[in-house]
Model the fold of this input.
Amino acid sequence: MVHLAAMESVVELSSALDDERDLRRLRASLHLPYAAVPGLAPAFRAERLARALEAAREQGGIALALRDGGGALLGLLQLEPLPHETRHFARRCARVAYLDAFGTSEAERATRAAALLASAAARADAAGVDVLWTQLRAIDYALQRALDGAGFRFADALVDWVARAEALALADADAPGIVHGASAELAGACGELAAAEMRFNRFRAEPRFERARVDALYRELGERCARGEIGAHFLCARGARGELLGFATLDWSARRDAGAPHEMAAFRFLVRRSEAPRGTGTALLDAGCRWLRAQGAELLLAQTVLQNAGMFRSALRLGFRVEDSLYDLFRWRAA
Done:
């Protein structure tokens, strides 16, 4: 049982999060997406979250707000369905896509976050959701306490990287074998590479997800990347005989005036294990960063699992630095 202060209550947001008081509160939060990235405008982060909340509702998700008696925002939780994972695993999946609570102490934040999680978990259980997934900044001990109390358990750890595009130590041209542009002909090879080589991931770490279904999920991901259905740009590394050695997809935004990041999604950056010591991963990362810089990118973000030592070497060699670390956590509905 979570005991809130008098006049504090959890309510479902019925309209877009556009109240100026709410946005001011969010702009001041240290726990917004990309909060640790220097130079990223707080206003952009708050407005991005507001848009994400509205989009989540349109897709069947909900947003829960914790407010005091005067209506001031004390905490926020976004819960959204995961239809893709639900289809693959034959289990109803959803995620807590955003969680934060405000307070004058860590204990107060933990209590308020726990109230939001209790409400979200009750709604998810009533809807027959089998598993909830979320990500948590590793340094946020208050939310760790709240998530642990709500039954969430650790699955794996991730590392966020950041770099200024102009400061990267990039080669003058792509390495031999780097090919830009999506190709349906590569779909099968990219799918098999993804199924075989994506060894470190939240779904691999959770034994209740069947291995064959996890393989099928990553196979489809690789195929969609090759066909250009995911991300803004696809590139791959091919060997002397034309064999696929690795691939990457890049996401980016041109909203530099709003302080938006230009992102490289590292979870779609994959190299065959045997190629890691040969510099293929570095060559792909180098080529991707060069492409992003040519588009006018200023801030590059990347993410990788903690166990990916090859990505660590490549990122550090080019000039990225570790910015933050995250945990993946799951909560399974009681039988």
